[in-house]
Amino acid sequence: xxxxxxYTYKLVLILFLTVSPDSLMAQNFSFEFYDGTxxxxxxxxxxIAIPEELSRETVAGFYAAMESGRYQPLMDRLLNYKxxxxxNDWIYYQLVRKTAQQISPKADNYHRYTLYKWFxxxxxxxxxxxxxxxxxxxxxxxxxxxxxxxxxxMEDGRKYMCLNVHDYGYPDLTSESMIPLGxxxxxxxxxxxxxxxxxxxxxxxxxxxxxxxxxxGQKSYHFQVKLNNAVEGIFANYPGVDFETxxxxxxSKETYGSLIPLLKKNVNGMSQKKGVDYLMxxxxxxxxxxxxxxxxxxxxxLSPEQTLLSRYSDCDDRAALFFYLVREIYDLPMIAxxxxxxxxxxxxxxxxTGKSILYNGARYSVCEATPQKEDLKVGQIAADxxxxxxxxxxxxxxxxxxxxxxxx
Length: 408
Description:
Helix content is about 35%, strand content about 20%. By secondary structure, it is α+β, with helices and mostly antiparallel strands.
């Protein structure tokens, strides 16, 4: 170990051995976390001050102090909460972020806030890394999934994704020299997943109601959908995940209950194709269109619930919402067609309609969920895309038909 780091370790330990008993009293924290309240105590031995200058010695000293402190009760509290509420990794990370924010507000000392996040995630068992690029403290976590819009680096065949690039305005970290901080954390070996297969429960009183309407045939349909603005916070910094992960993000409980039963009621008595046509036109015409560059200033995929929340949405967002509605109401096989500037869906019926697409031995009928120049029916392809090459980026096969859901 370098002499400077040894000196920092000894200095921190001496400080903790010389503090008075009164200073070791725990501080209580409490904050709302979706449907529940998270309470925890921070022992004074884990209330670590760090110098403003960022260095390897700063980080090593923080870790040594935390290791010497009484941090386990907080870890037990976090992990018990994660298990009790069945939190996916990404949702659990939101809990860790809020906990770190309570201990050390981001605006007061960003490096200290990041170090608490890193320590808590590492002690939760996740394989994490830290690095210094210029004056930035970069936080990475091991991930085995296909993420396409955030920086990463490889180490011994393992991929580490950057968890905090958004805090620095999405710089091109690949062009910067990074100093890795090799601080091993025993037991931190698990890969992190961005899959959100279960939305947290929110308090019913935190929902608002949004009126959504569209015209189908000669009839107007009106919906009063319950939505929660906390969903925006969950996905504020969510990266560009693969289509299997993206398409399978569910709705929250209250939103689902305010929309899906009514859609099922409205398509009851329709043929399967007409019902899918109804869902296609709902997704196409009940929401205003705007591309992501104009809407957000960058590419951003919205989950189905975000699309319901947002004033504007684009083709990615509508494809995901349409997929979710068809899966929940009819559970039919589907494929996603990716063009250079567009994405569309196609559905497998008992008998194909219009110009069908042959894929893996089955025929799928295109269902365009995004407004086009023409009023497209099921099985019709927009004129702008009839002669454009596409890739199949996702294939969904219901469990009863294939034995598993699959991606290609």
